[in-house]
Model the fold of this input.
Amino acid sequence: MNNPFSEVETESVEYVAGFIANKFCLKYPDLVQEKSSTQENVQWTQFISKGNLKIPSNNLLQAAKQIEIDFKELHGNFLNNEPNIFKKLTSTVMGKIKNIPVEVIQCFVRTRTYIRINNLNKDILNKQYTKTSKLK
Done:
């Protein structure tokens, strides 16, 4: 899979994948990368971690990148307002990724959607603040 992401986007995807890996590490330990294999290149996730973040396995990281690609296709720069967007995106991703449990994919889709909602809400607040500050 080629890398259609900027460096910041790649690191953000790694961070969210690490969050998901941490959440499911006891149930699915293969979602976490072994520490010995990550020593040669220090990732951003390792740099900002205070000990609780996990480094996602290569399989989870590839799944995360695929989810991000499919997420952008479905939503563009906003959010698709069709019903069942969680189910739609999950089924799209599950058709392409076979080695990650469905509950992990569902959690990733929810998390990614909530991140987008949070960012859109911040944009709205910033625009409102800009409008009100111009009126004064």
